Amino acid sequence: MSFANPEFFWALLFIPILLVWYILRNRKLQGSIKITSLNTFSDLKTNISRHSIIALRCLGLAALITAIARPQTSLSWQNVTTEGIDIVIALDISGSMLAEDFRPNRLEASKDVAMDFIAERPNDRIGLVIYGGESFTQCPLTSDHDVLLNLFGGIQNGMIEDGTAIGMGLATAVNRLKDSEAKSKVVILLTDGSNNSGSIPPVTAAEIAREFGVRVYTVGVGSMGEARMPFQDQFGRIQYQNVPVRIDEKTLKDIASIADGKYFRATDKNKLENIYKEIDKLEKSKINVTDYKKKSEHFWPFASLAAALLLLEFLLKNIIFKSVV
């Protein structure tokens, strides 16, 4: 509940002033004397009548002031019009994504940052394609981001044949967007290597993306130099070795150039987060929000209560207790 004229509540300060005046006046008009007499009961009746009258007056004034402040309840709703953006994230899950130059590794860091990105774009449809030696759609375009985030959380290395089919991953993502009617269609492609699998060359996939009006942002994931990589020895034990970081940046730049996008290099998780923030700024949807509000007045119950209390005070003072007040 809200009030249209809350400034009238300042008038409530008059009530304690009235009570103080009543107490001081009562003390001035009445003395105190100890006497053994039945008149004591008459004095008690007089005090009760006076106290009840002033109580009714205070309650009546409080109800009247509340009514003047105009209590209201409001019902509000919104009509939201959005010119959405359709985004497909194509994520490399090959074995090299387990390298630990990111914490805890490249794959988990990429998942965490992508999930944060998804959470910040509630008005867009987003899909997920994963690729290694082959590619498939893990989640088609959806506005149900809870489902998408659950599927993101379940991604792990080994779900598909190992390898890095960048062209296949991009082509699968474009296939998910080609029939979209969104004002902007975007692929965010992440990889830490170079194309070594699949039947579609990356540049060919980029040209297909351009034909369907799909913009492609490419992200090279990996530090400079060497990275610590886990592997299993012949006894099944996990061992580590440092391997060179080899990202085909030229191909990733070519893809971005052909498909009207941009290439980014993420050498750690913080830079990857900044890359997603930059993409977030580049791809903003327009949202028109219209607010509707309906207010209902609720001053009548308070006004009626005030009238009843003040009328009762008048009747008690001038009829019932007239002889004792």
From TrEMBL:
<keyword id="KW-0472">Membrane</keyword>
<feature type="domain" description="VWFA">
    <location>
        <begin position="86"/>
        <end position="279"/>
    </location>
</feature>
<feature type="transmembrane region" description="Helical">
    <location>
        <begin position="299"/>
        <end position="320"/>
    </location>
</feature>
<dbReference type="InterPro" id="IPR050768">
    <property type="entry name" value="UPF0353/GerABKA_families"/>
</dbReference>
<dbReference type="InterPro" id="IPR033881">
    <property type="entry name" value="vWA_BatA_type"/>
</dbReference>
<dbReference type="Pfam" id="PF07584">
    <property type="entry name" value="BatA"/>
</dbReference>
<dbReference type="InterPro" id="IPR036465">
    <property type="entry name" value="vWFA_dom_sf"/>
</dbReference>
<protein>
    <submittedName>
        <fullName>VWA domain-containing protein</fullName>
    </submittedName>
</protein>
<dbReference type="InterPro" id="IPR002035">
    <property type="entry name" value="VWF_A"/>
</dbReference>
<dbReference type="InterPro" id="IPR024163">
    <property type="entry name" value="Aerotolerance_reg_N"/>
</dbReference>
<feature type="transmembrane region" description="Helical">
    <location>
        <begin position="6"/>
        <end position="24"/>
    </location>
</feature>
<keyword id="KW-1003">Cell membrane</keyword>
<keyword id="KW-1133">Transmembrane helix</keyword>
<dbReference type="Pfam" id="PF00092">
    <property type="entry name" value="VWA"/>
</dbReference>
<dbReference type="InterPro" id="IPR011933">
    <property type="entry name" value="Double_TM_dom"/>
</dbReference>
<keyword id="KW-0812">Transmembrane</keyword>
